[in-house]
Design a protein that fits this description.
By secondary structure, the protein is α/β, with parallel strands linked by helices. It is built from nine helices and twelve strands.
Length: 297
């Protein structure tokens, strides 16, 4: 199923053309509006004009999480503060938190990405979607909420905790889809079993992320909750959730290549060969507030 069939089924040649067009826009945008990137580019003796083809991206410097921390809170903005309509932030458990900002258009783009993800796994406007994650600084809450609403689903913003009440709401409203961490989904299944109401649930799809989980966990969730369980990938720095998602085949994640340019590099920052392991490096192509160039994840 497709939310935006044209963009999601672009021929490779057309997709690469759009990637380059958006990459050039992003580089010019940060060079003109971000003191951080303008300084970084000058330190490396490069300008946006030096990137004429995809391979030239290797000339650009990497961006790291430490850059976001060192410029805390909003030192990497590429728009005026007056254009920022929302911020999210990491927990800061491993150091200074990283703050991410969004313009109105960023929020719209992010919602579109989530709508693609949810449509891809079979959700429609007829579904009832329980969003059982934190709605605070964590990006997962509002990210999924806006995308689900864009599809037209009834959204239940249940947040976390109060598991017995969550299950009662699922039964009362006929909830058909849920988004939460896999560990919380396992807990929901355990409590529902204790309540003796597994057969009264209408769940059919579960979207899980924000923590590592295994194929065995997927199998347990699907058997206990009688759902299809899908993996979600995202990072706060790259909008949040919605960067990549599984489809109904459940055989790997699809990254939205019209919004993110992806490289895989070794420890030295050099490209790895096809099929080799490496570190994911992502360049945002459509973010306005805080675009990231060659972000080492």
């Amino acid at each position: 199923m497709f939310w935006d069939r044209k963009m999601e089924t672009l021929p490779r040649e057309e997709l690469e053309r759009i990637q380059m067009k958006r990459l050039k826009w992003t580089l010019e945008h940060v060079y003109r509006n971000s003191p951080f990137y303008r300084r970084r580019f000058k330190e490396h003796g490069i300008t946006p004009d030096d990137v004429k083809k995809r391979e030239d991206i290797s000339k650009l410097p990497f961006t790291r999480k430490s850059d976001l921390r060192e410029t805390y809170p909003l030192g990497m903005l590429s728009v005026p503060r007056s254009s920022v309509v929302r911020v999210h932030a990491s927990s800061g458990t491993s150091g200074k938190p990283t703050v991410v900002a969004y313009t109105k258009k960023d929020i719209e783009t992010w919602s579109e990405l989530i709508a693609r993800c949810l449509t891809m796994v079979g959700f429609t406007s007829k579904d009832v979607f329980q969003n059982a994650v934190n709605y605070g600084f964590f990006t997962g809450g509002l990210g999924f909420h806006y995308g689900a609403e864009k599809i037209g689903m009834m959204v239940v913003p249940s947040g976390t905790g109060g598991t017995q009440r969550q299950i009662e709401i699922m039964m009362d409203l006929g909830v058909t889809g849920i988004h939460c961490t896999p560990s919380y989904a396992l807990h929901i299944a355990e409590v529902a079993e204790e309540m003796g109401v597994i057969d009264d649930l209408s769940l059919r799809i579960g979207c899980f992320g924000a923590e590592p989980w295994s194929d065995n966990t997927r199998k347990v969730l699907e058997e206990k909750l009688r759902i299809k369980a899908y993996d979600s990938y995202g990072m706060s720095e790259l909008f949040g959730p919605g960067v990549a998602f599984e489809c109904e085949m459940q055989n790997g994640l699809h990254i939205w290549a019209d919004h993110f340019l992806v490289e895989v590099v070794d420890e030295e920052g050099e490209p790895v060969g096809e099929g080799e392991r490496g570190e994911l490096v992502v360049t945002t192509l459509t973010k306005e507030a805080i675009p990231l160039i060659r972000y080492r994840t």
